Amino acid sequence: MEESNAKEPPKPLPHRGRRHAETIRHLRKWIRRQGRNVSGEFLQGAAYKLGSGAVTLIILWWQTHR
Fold it and tell me: How many whole angstroms separate alpha carbon 8 and alpha carbon 1?
């Protein structure tokens, strides 16, 4: 008897596995709807870093002048 290279039909997922698969599918759809705006993401990241650095400098200044 020869072995078949055909894929086996998918087995039914247990409740937890099915829920995980649905969540992944939902997240992928959401990401596609959001699109990717590289320049917008870059500016948002740069603003976050700049703000974080400014707060750090203020805290350091505050501690040295107390």
Answer: 17
Q: Which residues of 29-65 are buried (b: 16+ CB within 10 A; e: fewer)?
A: eeeeeeeeeeeeeeeeeeeeeeeeeeeeeeeeeeeee
Per-position pLDDT tens, the chain of length 66: 556 666 777 666 566 677 888 888 888 887 777 766 666 777 788 899 999 999 999 999 999 987
Q: Do 22 and 14 meet the contact criterion of CB atoms below 8 Å apart?
A: no
Residues 6 or more apart from 53 whose CB is under 8 A from it?
A: none
Q: Where are the alpha helices (DSSP H) in 1-66?
A: 15-34, 38-64
